[in-house]
Amino acid sequence: MASTSSALTISSSSTLVDGKAPRQSPAASPQCVSLPPPPLTSQNRAWKTTAYGRKIARNVMAMATGEAPAEVAPTEVPEFVKTLQEAWDKVDDKYAVSSLAVVGVVALWGSVGLISAIDRLPLIPGVLEIVGIGYTGWFVYKNIVFKPDREALICKIKETYKEIIGSN
Questions:
Q1: What is the pLDDT of residues 84-134, one digit of tens each?
Q2: Of 81, 84, 80, 58, which Cα lies nearest the Cα of 71?
Q3: Is pLDDT at 153 greater than 60 in this prediction?
Q4: Neighbours of 59 (CB within 10 A)
Q5: Lowest model confidence (mean pLDDT) among 19-23, 127-131, 138-142
Q6: What is the dihedral of CA 15, 20, 26, 31, to 10 degrees?
Q7: Closest by alpha carbon to 151, among 143, 139, 160?
Q8: Please, are residues 59 and 72 in contact by the beta-carbon 8 Å criterion?
Q9: Would you give the end-to-end CA distance of the chain in angstroms?
Q10: SS3 assignment for 30-94
Q11: Which of 22, 3, 20 has the alpha carbon at shortest distance from 12?
Q12: Phi/psi zone of residue 66: left (φ > 0), alpha (ψ -120 to 50 degrees), beta?
């Protein structure tokens, strides 16, 4: 195995002018690729950040003393959020509802993981697809093709809807 050695030489005559390093021409060193120098941090940006920090500190001090900050404008909340807040205020057992929401999210996450694991198996997705197509065909033949069966299905759906909703 032959080894080649290449050396990078740095000229001592290179100087920094205006905070920028001198650029080498690509023909001068075909083996070395030079990257552009990193951008300098802008003094203007630092000033804006400092001014923003002062503004926040001023608002926090005003809130701590009980004064209303001068720059706070009332924000309008969408109707959906207002409805959601009203519904949340009506809930008696917020701990149980929060727990059910967390359990629902975890169950959804777990079921997605399970389905993706089954989908990665070699034969199972094809077999499940054939079973789904077969069941759909059977359901259509049994409940939708003929008019009396279709009317019975619609009646059953309406009854179930009324039981769930509890209409008078």
A1: 889 889 988 999 999 999 999 999 999 999 999 988 888 888 899 999 999
A2: 58
A3: yes
A4: 16
A5: 19-23
A6: 80
A7: 143
A8: yes
A9: 90
A10: CCCCCCCCCCCCCHHHHHHHHHHHHHHHHHHHHHHHCCCCCCCCCCCCCHHHHHHHHHHHHCCCH
A11: 22
A12: left
Name residue 79's amino acid: E
Q: pLDDT value at position 136? A: 97
If you average pLDDT over residues 29-35, what whole number do you get? 67
Whole-model pTM?
Answer: 0.36
How many other β-carbons are positioned within 10 Å of the β-carbon of residue 26? 10
Residue type, 69: P
The SS3 of residue 71 is: coil
The pLDDT value recorded for residue 14 is 47
DSSP 29: -
Residue 17 has pLDDT above 70, yes or no: no
Category of 2 on φ-ψ map: left (φ > 0), alpha (ψ -120 to 50) or beta: beta
